[in-house]
Amino acid sequence: MSILVYLESAEGSIKKSSLEAVSYAKELSNQIGGDVYALALGEIAESELTAVGKAGATKVVYAKNEKFSSGIIQVHAEVVAQVFQAKGAKTLVLAKSSLGDAVAARLSVKLNAGLVSNVVSLPELGNGFTVKRSIYTGKAFAETSITTENKILAVKKNTVDLKTDGAEASIEKFDANVSDSLFAAKITATDKATGEVLLPEADIVVSGGRGMKGPENWGMIEELASELGAATGCSKPVSDIGWRPHHEHVGQTGVKVSPTLYVAVGISGAIQHLAGVNSSKCIVVINKDPEAPFFKAADYGIVGDAFEVLPKLTQAVKAIK
Ligand SMILES: Cc1cc2nc3c(=O)[nH]c(=O)nc-3n(C[C@H](O)[C@H](O)[C@H](O)COP(=O)(O)OP(=O)(O)OC[C@H]3O[C@@H](n4cnc5c(N)ncnc54)[C@H](O)[C@@H]3O)c2cc1C
Questions:
Q1: Are residues 92 and 119 in contact, defined by beta-carbon separation less than 8 angstroms?
Q2: What is the C-alpha separation between 53 and 62, in angstroms, rounded?
């Protein structure tokens, strides 16, 4: 009764959220037994694959095919289903993400599997198989029981401790049989943000709002982000006006983040913004208005002018480093 983990990659590297899913699967295998197989698709360096063992995988199943790299949902779902069946797995674990959601939904149908998304803890096995998941954009939890034999768990990012003490995994090649008709959708070009930390994956995020006054002042946000190894984000109006690209827009209608540290600069803390950040582990707010609603959600608050506070904060980070 093995557990299969579906790995997502970007630029030839396995995503951190997928490694967290592997660590979750390892903990789960301690409860229910079985090997942890991790499935990688596309073109990925072998050293990157063996390193998945450190997060807890026993073996990496590698469906090596350049055509799988573009992340066509139907193709990934088909390959995962084939490996799931070949390995006699009963549980599939993956990271909750836009690609993960789309693949998991299809697999739920293909494998007749109960699917729970946004999982934040290991299952309770005393009375069936009940998992806790985050709902209402992180404002509440629900407990959901899966009654099917096959199960799919999509784990919320940054909620699992990433294991790094496992042994290197062995690699087993898998020859997937995928019909050409599944390649009907073609990704002809992708707009890649290179050299930056990806916002949905980031462990630290520095975000700016309208209080930054204009795009010409974003150098301060970027400098602090660079010193912290952080991704940059922004509020919705900031991307609507065109000060920052839309993929940086954080909130209910934008990217939902759950970093270890979220630094909000000149953002008022409207409920729609908070909906995207409220599962951050630590929130630091910099705002000149002591009544700004964001302070109610903050772990640390600095009441002050961003244009004075940011350079000092960046200097302080540099000094510590
Ligand atoms: C359906 C719907 C969906 C929405 N979805 C989202 C969403 O996903 N994400 C999102 O962000 N918003 C969303 N919004 C918009 C949201 O309601 C707020 O309008 C928006 O978040 C406010 O952005 P802001 O905080 O940057 O700007 P403002 O509300 O203008 O706040 C600017 C803040 O900067 C502070 N400030 C000004 N100058 C300085 C300074 N020099 N130093 C320090 N602080 C300063 C001010 O005190 C103020 O608190 C949505 C709205 C609707 C209706």
A1: no
A2: 13
DSSP-derived 3-state class of residue 320 = helix
Q: What pLDDT does 139 receive?
A: 79
- 218-228 and 306-320 are packed helices; what angle lies between their axes, rounded to 10 degrees? 20
φ/ψ (deg, to 5) at 130 = -115, 125
- Confirm or reject: Cβ of 273 under 6 Å from ligand 1: yes
Residue 92 falls in which region: left (phi positive, over 0), alpha (psi -120 to 50) or beta = beta
Bridge partners (DSSP) of residue 62 are 40, 173
Residue listed under structure tokens 């062995």: 170
Identify the segments of the chain with pLDDT beneath 50: none
Q: In sequence order, which residues have a C-beta less than 8 Å from that of residue 237 and are 6 or more positions away?
A: 209, 210
How far apart are the C-alpha atoms of 38 and 126, rounded to whole Å? 27
Where do we find the tokens 């995928």?
A: 178
Q: Is 287 in the pocket of ligand 1 (CB under 6 A)?
A: yes
Residue 303 to residues 28, 232, 236, 294, 310: CA-CA distances in angstroms?
Answer: 44, 21, 22, 11, 12
- Which of 232, 272, 277, 309 has most ligand 1 atoms within 8 Å of CB, for mutation? 272
Site of tokens 């009544």: 291
pTM comes to 0.80
Quote helix, strand, coil % in the chain, to nearest 5.
35, 25, 40
pLDDT at 127: 83
Size (the chain), residues: 321
Given this model, what pLDDT does residue 195 score? 54
Query: Ligand 1 centroid to 159 CA: how many Å?
Result: 27
Residues 146 and 161: their CA atoms lie apart, in Å, by: 24
